């Protein structure tokens, strides 16, 4: 207190003001929302500009890995997109005479919170970046900006506007034949299909099939692997959504899926193919495709929905084959909760109780219908009966048809006789049927190692290991067209040698000049 009084006296004597006045309030001052939004805009625009640089490197080096990096970063950037930011980027990227400038701006201006007033955006852009419109814009940058607008419209839920925009974009891109556009084109077709599937009714999904088939033919002729694989998967999804199984089967028969396609596309293709084969009663093939889909799918939270759908369908297929899924599947954290109805279904089938099976189906009918497995589950009734017969053949050496009819709650003994005879013929049980006395007598269990079962299982494991090895070798990626650079360097070296030889022969250069080293 004494020190403060002395300071005040000195200040009054000198006639000076308090030098610390106003400074104590400065640390509590927070940056306003305008500064924060300006910094956020600058960061988003800088990230998009960096993507342009990567696309230019992809074109210059003819290397698709740079394009894949741009597409991976798009999933992060899409959360920060706004209409005003996209409009600013488009204005600063496209030259004023570019035909795409007006169309993109007209789509985004309506969604911008500032409407048609773009003066504030221009002022912000003067601070944010120094991008100048180029006279000739790369097609890769052009399609990337259109793709960003597609993603923004999808996130905003504007499906009708996005469907019209995607339709025009696909028709425009159909005439572009550049291999550096393949990855971007595949994404454009993906969102094109998603927009039309999101519209009410199935008319829009059916209407795009002609365009997808035409694009598939063009991509096949151009050897565009990414677009070809993407469109095949989209067409299978489209056919299955409207239950056109025969058309989906014809597509699989006539259109060969590229072996060098991306892993996620191969997983989705295997899933749809397994679904088709399950509906066609080819359960063994369906099981192989679904196992391949679950193994190739990424085991991360982002792909949880696909992994759950593939495992649900695979469980039903295994039950239809007469097998019981392993309990470890239902204990995985990602699958434990979604597979609870299927666990109850497996328990009912495993013990062969028809009443418990019917109760479970009725209890979880809505879940099964939403998953698209209800029709396949309705086929399990016969398998439940076969399982019950197999359990009784193991427990009893001889049992009458009447007891079988009572235990399985069948309508008559004739039905029990027919079911037992079919189970014996299919190899479900090892037993004999006495029609005159009306009973089933089980045969003695044979040694499994005396049969072909161990050999078949060993063959399946070897087949899987060889297939896994071939897929790993195929999945190895090397820099594209590296051999062209080596051939170019070798050709330039040979040309230099020829020029040196000509100079020596003409007398313009001697062997002792030093630049010519050893021919």
Task: Briefly summarize what is shown.
The chain is mainly alpha-helical and about 525 residues long. The chain has helices at about 1-15, 35-60, 65-75, 85-95, 100-110, 120-130, 140-155, 160-175, 180-200, 205, 210-220, 225-240, 245-255, 265-280, 285-295, 305-320, 340-350, 355-365, 365-370, 375, 380-395, 400-410, 415-425, 455-475, 480-505, and strands at about 400, 430-435, 440. Helix content is about 65%, strand content about 0%.
Describe the 3D structure:
By secondary structure, this protein is an all-alpha fold. The protein has a domain of 117 residues. It is 67% helix and 2% strand. It contains 25 helices and 3 strands. The longest helix is centred in the first third of the chain and has 29 residues. The protein starts with a helix and ends in a 13-residue tail after the last helix.
């Amino acid at each position: 207190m004494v020190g403060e009084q002395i300071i005040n006296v000195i200040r009054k004597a000198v006639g000076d003001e308090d030098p610390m006045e106003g400074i104590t309030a400065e640390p509590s001052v927070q940056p306003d929302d305008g500064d924060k939004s300006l910094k956020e805009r600058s960061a988003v625009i800088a990230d998009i500009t960096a993507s342009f640089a990567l696309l230019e490197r992809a074109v210059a080096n003819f290397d698709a890995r740079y394009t894949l990096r741009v597409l991976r970063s798009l999933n992060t950037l899409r959360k920060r997109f706004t209409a005003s930011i996209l409009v600013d980027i488009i204005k600063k990227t496209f030259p004023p005479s570019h035909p795409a400038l007006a169309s993109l701006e007209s789509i985004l201006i309506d969604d911008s919170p500032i409407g048609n007033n773009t003066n504030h955006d221009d002022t912000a852009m003067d601070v944010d970046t120094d991008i100048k419109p180029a006279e000739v814009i790369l097609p890769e940058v052009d399609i990337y900006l259109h793709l960003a607008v597609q993603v923004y419209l999808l996130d905003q839920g504007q499906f009708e506007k996005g469907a019209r925009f995607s339709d025009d974009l696909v028709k425009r891109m159909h005439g572009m034949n550049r291999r550096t556009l393949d990855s971007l084109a595949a994404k454009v077709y993906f969102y094109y299909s998603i927009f039309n599937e999101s519209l009410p009714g199935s008319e829009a999904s059916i209407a795009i099939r002609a365009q997808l088939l035409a694009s598939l033919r063009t991509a096949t002729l151009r050897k565009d692997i990414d677009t070809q694989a993407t469109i095949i998967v989209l067409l299978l999804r489209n056919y299955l959504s409207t239950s056109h199984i025969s058309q989906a089967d014809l597509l699989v028969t006539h259109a060969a899926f590229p072996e060098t396609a991306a892993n996620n596309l191969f997983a989705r293709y295997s899933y749809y193919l397994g679904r088709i084969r399950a509906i066609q009663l080819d359960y063994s093939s369906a099981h192989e495709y679904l196992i391949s889909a679950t193994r190739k799918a990424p085991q991360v939270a982002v792909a949880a929905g696909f992994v759950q759908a593939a495992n649900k369908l695979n469980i039903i297929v295994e039950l239809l084959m007469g097998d019981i899924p392993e309990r470890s599947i239902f204990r995985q954290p990602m699958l434990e909760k979604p597979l609870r109805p299927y666990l109850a279904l497996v328990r009912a089938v495993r013990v062969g109780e028809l009443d418990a099976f019917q109760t479970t189906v009725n209890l979880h009918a809505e879940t099964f219908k939403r998953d698209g497995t209800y029709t396949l589950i309705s086929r399990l009734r016969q398998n439940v009966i076969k399982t019950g017969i197999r359990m009784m053949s193991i427990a009893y050496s001889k049992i009458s048809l009447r007891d079988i009819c009572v235990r399985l709650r069948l309508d008559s003994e004739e039905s029990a006789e027919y079911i037992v005879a079919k189970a014996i013929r299919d190899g479900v049980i090892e037993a004999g049927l006495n029609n005159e006395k009306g009973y089933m007598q089980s045969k003695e269990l044979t040694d499994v190692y005396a049969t072909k079962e161990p050999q078949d299982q060993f063959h399946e494991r070897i087949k899987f290991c060889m297939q896994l090895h071939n897929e790993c070798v195929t999945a190895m990626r090397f820099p594209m067209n590296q051999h062209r650079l080596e051939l170019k360097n070798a050709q330039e070296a040979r040309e230099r040698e020829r020029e040196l030889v000509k100079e020596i022969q003409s007398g313009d250069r001697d062997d002792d000049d030093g630049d010519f080293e050893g021919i």
